[in-house]
Write a structure and sequence with these properties.
Number of domains of chain B: 2
Distance between the termini of chain B: 50 Å
CATH architecture of the largest domain in chain B: 3-Layer(aba) Sandwich
Oligomer: heterodimer
Shape of chain A: globular
Number of helices of chain B: 12
Largest interface: A-B, 50 and 48 residues
Shape of chain B: globular
Distance between the termini of chain A: 67 Å
CATH class of the largest domain in chain B: Alpha Beta
Strand content of chain B: 15-25%
Bound molecules: thiamine diphosphate, magnesium ion
Helix content of chain A: 40-55%
CATH topology of the largest domain in chain B: Rossmann fold
Number of strands of chain A: 7
Order of helices and strands of chain B: EHEHEHEHHEHEHEEEEHEEHEHEHH
């Protein structure tokens, strides 16, 4: 387990925040692959608080807003940024991008652009962990929007029925695109659904990262012992859904209020007020993080485009023949004429 | 309605708005179709015009959205459901293929399912493997489902109006790369009949059969080819079910050469079906094999470079035609 003291949690949250800000910059500079970039600013405590309680060997899946979770599990920001730019040096060689990033070495079974698409895999990973007696758990991270998908309920039922080492983490940022949670469900107490299936379940306010870490610790211990769990983390999506969304469906007063729920600033203030860190120390730390994340942009921009031929690679196992390119096939056919 | 200069997106909205005005049983439902105005802006402000009872924002529950549309259609409404990306069709496949498509037949013709499912597909936004596909083949492979794929501003409007008059379920697949395309629309003009292909360019040497965004690539290619002395006709199918083979047959019999162009992956796709059909029906007239210029048999990458080269370009169409005449 990682160090879950507040200075450590703060540092991890700051890294997520700054990384996401740099992703925004990459887009503005026209260097990202497309605009479907979903920033997790405002949700740092969910990623960092839960991930701090996970161990090496644990696996997880994320939704489309998963940069922070991956970073909190130890991702290299350079390779992440390169992937977001669609470069060869990215985690998935420029094929996956922001919404389909993964790293099996870190237990990241994949981000997903299908809402709910990554949830059932943790049931299988839980079965696998138990079968192999590995002691690992598997965690599905998803947004409140995914509670609209039937597959979540099928997965929770199986996990509870089979007592799997599995945890479901719902990052409730109050919105699915322009739809507020109360416009998408008549009962926004999301953890109650999990209770109905027989999981250990609770909701935690995401303002204090230590609260999230503490809630996650208890639930993860239970999950490791065969009592699957569900944790909803209440937070606020600070910015638009994706880079081009200016959030016209909510007003500035609401946004100003929502952004008060800032887990990064909260932790910073607490570090100062409790005397754990001085403002000068924090400034120095923030500056080091900024340097690290600036470097990730440089790394991504300097990266090479993928080789054209690489597009036929990895459709199947490397031992198998690659699909025949259309051009090659046409040449072959038309040469007969 | 006046003749107007408008976009593909606005032509679609106009069709929805007019259909809703004309028929109170028409409702629109889907994710973000109301307050947000649709992920691609097609339903913008419809909620202001028709209210929340008829423009319904749903949770992110594709299977139930389509299933609810089926039930609404069976009981007197004319639902237009929206699937934000055609890539999510997998989540709805039971409701589409086992329910919507088969209800009329299984129940001995007692009832039809007059619903429209609007969605959009195709490449062009670096949206990656799960948001860039062309899945019309899944639909065309399912008897009972109609399939319309507009390529032009005119058809965005007229085909959608016509889809809303069909007695059976219609999949209406737009192309994400066409929403901002501008052209003149005359909403009152007599549209080409439902199920009829359009010959957008005449040429006696080669017939290019295509649909959706590739119509524009084919037209650009035909222009280049004409300057080199190769004259191609370009057929826009408009609907893939019904499929208008009567328009294709005489053109191929005259030209003796045919090319099918589709953005979808080649194997077992729409292009495969069209190529087989042309080969069977026009065999004695063909000078060359019918060639398919289609998407590579691979997923779509987020890298713009790989994405662009995964699907047919005007250059590839030109190159292929040159080889046919070399
Ligand atoms: C199956 C599916 N339906 C719809 C979408 C389009 N979509 C992408 S993200 C999103 C909202 C998701 O909201 P939530 O799960 O709360 O995650 P958040 O974006 O708030 O992090 C929607 C509707 C999708 N990608 N997949
Ligand atoms: Mg959300």
């Amino acid at each position: 387990m990682k160090n879950t003291t507040l200075p450590e949690l703060y540092k991890d949250m700051r890294r997520v925040r700054t990384f996401e800000e740099r992703v925004g910059e990459l887009f503005v500079r026209g260097q990202s692959a497309g605009s479907m970039l979903h920033l997790s600013i405002g949700e740092e405590s969910a990623a960092v608080g839960v991930c701090a309680q996970m161990r090496d060997g644990d696996t997880f899946t994320t939704h489309h807003r998963g940069h922070g979770i991956f970073l909190a599990r130890g991702a290299d920001p350079n390779r992440m940024m390169a992937e977001i730019a669609g470069k060869e040096s990215g985690y998935c060689a420029g094929k996956g991008g922001s919404m389909h990033i993964a790293d099996m070495g870190l237990g990241h079974l994949g981000a997903n652009a299908i809402v709910g698409g990554g949830i059932p895999a943790v049931v299988g990973a839980g079965l696998s962990a138990r079968h192999r007696n590995s002691g690992a758990i598997s965690v599905a991270f998803f947004g409140d929007g995914a509670t609209g998908q039937g597959i979540l309920y099928e997965s929770m039922n199986m996990a509870a029925l089979w007592k799997l080492p599995v945890m479901f983490v719902c990052i409730n940022n109050q919105y699915g695109m322009g739809t507020r949670i109360d416009q998408a469900t008549a009962n926004p107490n999301l953890h109650e659904r999990a209770l109905a299936f027989g999981l250990a379940a609770r909701t935690v306010d995401g303002l204090e990262v230590e609260d999230v870490a503490e809630a996650a610790a208890g639930l993860i211990d239970g999950a490791r012992a065969g009592k699957p769990a569900f944790l909803a983390v209440d937070c606020y999506r600070f910015f638009g859904h994706a880079r081009k969304d200016k959030s016209p469906y909510r007003d500035e007063a609401e946004e100003a209020e929502g952004r008060k729920k800032d887990p990064v600033l909260r932790a910073r203030d607490k570090l100062i007020s409790t005397g754990l860190m001085s403002e000068a120390d924090l400034d120095a730390l923030d500056a080091r993080v900024a340097e690290e994340m600036d470097a990730s942009i440089d790394f991504a921009v300097a990266g090479k485009e993928p080789q054209m031929q690489s597009m036929f690679r990895d459709v199947y196992d490397p031992s198998q023949p690659e699909p025949e390119p259309v051009r090659t096939r046409l040449d072959r056919i038309l040469a007969q004429g | 309605m006046a003749v107007q200069e408008t976009t593909y997106r606005d032509a679609l909205r106009l069709a929805l708005s007019e259909a809703m005005t004309a028929d109170d049983s028409v409702i629109v439902m889907g994710e973000e179709v109301g307050r947000y105005g649709g992920a691609y802006g097609v339903t913008r402000d419809l909620i202001k015009e028709f209210g929340e009872e008829r423009v319904i924002d749903t949770p992110i529950s594709e299977a139930a959205i389509v299933g609810a549309a089926v039930g609404a259609a069976m009981t007197g409404l004319r639902p237009v459901a929206e699937l934000m990306y055609v890539d999510f069709i997998g989540m709805t496949m039971d409701q589409l293929a086992n329910q919507a498509a088969k209800i009329r037949y299984m129940f001995g013709g007692q009832i039809g399912v007059p619903m429209v499912l609007r969605t959009q597909g195709g490449t062009g936004r670096s949206a990656g493997a799960q948001h860039s596909q062309s899945l019309e083949g899944y639909v065309m492979h399912t008897p009972g489902l109609r399939l319309a794929m507009p390529a032009t501003v005119e058809d965005a409007y007229h085909l959608l109006r016509q889809s809303l008059r069909q007695p059976d379920p219609v999949l209406f697949i737009e192309h994400k790369g066409l929403y901002t395309m501008k052209s003149t629309l005359d909403p009152d003009a007599e549209p080409a009949p439902w199920g009829k292909a359009k010959v957008l360019r005449d040429g006696a040497d080669l017939v290019i059969v295509t649909y959706s965004r590739q119509v524009h690539h084919a037209l650009a290619a035909a222009e280049t080819l004409a300057s080199e002395g190769i004259h191609a006709s370009v057929v826009d199918l408009r609907t893939l079910n019904p499929l208008d083979f009567d328009t294709i047959r005489p053109l191929v019999e005259t030209a003796g050469r045919a090319m099918v162009v589709s953005e979808a992956v080649m194997t077992c796709g729409v292009a495969a079906e069209l190529s087989a059909r042309i080969t069977e029906e026009c065999f004695d007239f063909l000078e060359d094999p019918v060639v398919r210029v289609a998407g590579e048999d691979i997923p779509i990458s987020v890298s713009p470079l790989l994405e662009q080269n995964s699907v047919p370009t005007p250059d590839l169409i030109v190159e292929t035609a040159r080889k046919m005449f070399a």
